[in-house]
Please model this.
Amino acid sequence: MRFTETHEWIDVKENVGVVGVSAFAQKELGDIVYVELPKVGREVKKGQEAAVLESTKAAADVYSPASGKIIEVNATLNQKPELVNTSSEGEGWLFKLQLSDPQELTGLLDKQAYQANLKDSGFSP
Amino acid sequence: MSKTCFEKTQPGQHAYSMSRSDSEFDCFLPPLRLLRKNELMLPEMSEIDITRHFCELAAKNVGIDNEFYPLGSCTMKFNPRVNEQCSALPGFSSGHPLAPEEMVQGNLQIIFELVEMLCALCGMEAGSLLPCAGAHGEYTGIKMISAYHSSRGDHQRSEILIPDDAHGTNPATASMAGYRAISIHTNVKGEVDLDHLRQMASERTAALMLTNPNTLGLFNSQIRDIAEIIHGQGGMLYYDGANLNAILNVVKPGEMGFDVMHLNLHKTFSTPHGGGGPGSGPVLCNEKLAKFLPIPRVEKDGNHFKMSWKDVSSIGQICSFHGNFAIYLRAYLYAKLHGNYGLRRIAENAVLNANYLKSKLIQFFTIPYSQSCMHEFVIQADNYLDKGIKALDIAKRLLDYGMHAPTIYFPLIVKECMLVEPTEVESKATLDQFVEAMAAIIEEIQQDPELVRTAPHKTPVSRLDEVLAAKKPILKAQLK
Amino acid sequence: MDFISNQKAQVNAMLEAIGAGSIEELFASIPQNLKHRAPHRDDGLSESEGVILMEEIAAKNTFSSYESYLGAGAYEHYLPAVIGFICSKSEFLTAYTPYQPEASQGMLQATFEFQSAICALTGMDVSNASLYDGATACAEAMLMALRYQKERNKVVIASSLHPHYFSVVKQFLSSHGTLIERIPFDKDGSLDRAKAEALIDDQTSAVLLPYPSFFGVIDEIKQISAKAKACGSLMVVCANPLVYGLYASAEEIGADIAVGDIQPLGLPLQFGGPYCGYMACRQDLVRQMPGRIVGETIDAEGKRGFVLTLQAREQHIRREKATSNICTNQALAALASLVCMLWYGRQGLRELALTNYQRTAYLRHRLGQLPGVVLMGNAPFFNEFALSFGYSGAEAFEHFRHRGIEPGLDLGKYYPEFNGYLLVAVTETKTKGMLDRYIQVASELMVRK
Model:
């Protein structure tokens, strides 16, 4: 699992990346009430807005950690958006991406580096 | 448990009476195929039940008439009843918006003279009352700026600069008007970061939107420098007049360097908030932008007033008719009653009340900006987080003390903030009561934090589940 | 005069607590060269002087001395007394937006009930808490449709939509480069259905039709809706809400979004405002709908309560990505309208709509029988119709005005092809006696020719 500085994670197997947001991100947002998922088939670029997480007090853009094509979205979140809070790095995954440029992953942080970043900014992961 | 009027429906009951019809009308019926087939499921209630229903609802609501309402950024001041009385005069309330000019000279006089008064007050040359709210005024002003740049063949201006402590309507307006909103940092002194501004201002800058005093209640004394930076790049300066109450007849936005502005009659000019509206957001501008003002406009020709509906340079119409006219009546009378003398006194007393309250609250809260505030100020409630108490909890507990909470979590750049605006009308005694209530709550945080964390306890309902409301929205009553 | 409470003693005590020598000191952060000196002369008025001033200005308006047949988007209806009484209650009139819901259950519940009433009227699934007016509601509906299907950038709008409403829509779409196609109307004022269907295609984001039109005509909206649906376009109907007391609901004619101005139900003419825009839509469009929305929920003890909800759509949360920049709406006007809708109730609203229709039909029919009078056509109508007395210019108007009647709107000023036509609106405020007098005055006018 690798992380972005904007609190997304991506877990890649055979060129397909599962994407979600970190435990820190879900805590900051509060109770998620709605998830706006991308359309299957859409092409996204690394860093482009791909999804939106809504709580009662905020709406946060989720930026795609890599470029590729959306091949699946987590439709369960339509009925149970709270999964993003209870299992942000597991069942609360957002979408799956067919990577177009696996090289992009080398720029991302591993879990340790991501958590160290958080500590440096004064947050507890 | 409260029942909606839909649940109070009783078949056959009604309040209405209909005037006598005539047998000669009866033969007229529209084509059957076009008629409504589905039932019209409005409630059926008698007039006494309707009256009781709304009295019951009123008992579960509070306005400035009922309690102190120090909502920062909202300017909750007393709504004079003489304004209400005069706006209901039949000569005013019965006017059709498309009536011939000769029949509505009084109405046209109100519009013309109110624009004149507001322009003089704000150091501007021309204006329009048409925008129905502040956000509508912002949109109008930004579209005028857009028209100005286009008229000069300057089509590369795609950005609007907005300080990060700005009201949400500012960036939303920029988007609606087709621009990208670029955020400008606020420095630790609570003022616009000039270096960042210089960095971001360019030939792509259409305008900077600024509130002065800003949403932290601080006057940006570098306003001339800011104007120079923006004008130097060929951009325009937009003034968000939400905080005008602090500077009435003290400083004029036009003289600060602003090209166009809006103000809020439902804030500065005492027109009632009505539970969320209607308001009015007049837009005023300098000579450069005057020809882009929306239509219709009211002009004076000797002693006669006329309406002008045609101007090729105008950005066009922004609302159905003449805007929220009955609101102008209230603002007009308010301005006349005060005169320039009274309007100045408003600013002086608004600033006095705010500074007094701030000096009393400093013992309980962090004050992030040490300099003198204007008509409102920010306090931070972050020193109670270790007891599990946030600004939200203190706000809710204030409701139990019979006071409306200040604005919370705005501006976004200050953590656990409360924005407090007492306005000029409140007496020292009321302000002292507010301080006492805060003192009591702070004591409760020490002795019994749970009480504060689960507040309010004395309101018709306790803390409401907003997460449930958003997750499983029920947005209307069951229609039977 | 002013409304300031503190006198010298309190001012001095407060300055002392602050540690300032004068109020002047509190303005020290303002550059000296920008500051004005305080005026020394009190140029204000006493309350009684203020009242006299306002009465003098009101007296300059002579409009109320005429029996008016003006409509065109603003209609004179009887206003039940209970409306003014409820809307002037302190707790409603002087309250702020219900951001602290526990202290604002009254207004929140009233708004929830308003939303419900709009849904009952239009037959749609959800409604918002109001927009500024009918024109901006149309504009917001167009923007909503464009957000819903971002790949499309064309809208199709009836040429018989209120010209002011069309101007506002055009203004709001001007930042988005949207292609606007207009559906022409025939000589009888009704929309050309074939041309409408030809204009609607798979690039169309929304079709906007009035109900009734500016000419008072009731068009065959249901058929045009079918074409819109087939092309995947949204259908927006802009209606005088009273029409729903008689004619098919927005839902029945295939609307996806229903908008308009609620003014005919509960608001005085007031020279154009405050009026109140309404917007209701299909359930699945709710997250694209602008404006505040009230929802039902429960409190910590399980008691029912109401809150502003789905706020992530709005400017204070979503900022530059919000559905709209709207903040302040027309809340109190919406309350007035709710009270009016309750006063009439389900039976009364239907009777009100019918009597409006019948009085209009009576006048139209009787005028149509006068030799030389030309009615615009025979299309179905509501509350309004257009006709020509065969005069151009002001002559016909002058004739009626001398008899204390404002006979209608000069239609030629808005549609040059209808030069010499008047747009006449009749509501339940016109008794048979008044209508017969109009006919009498008209017949005198025709005899003169």
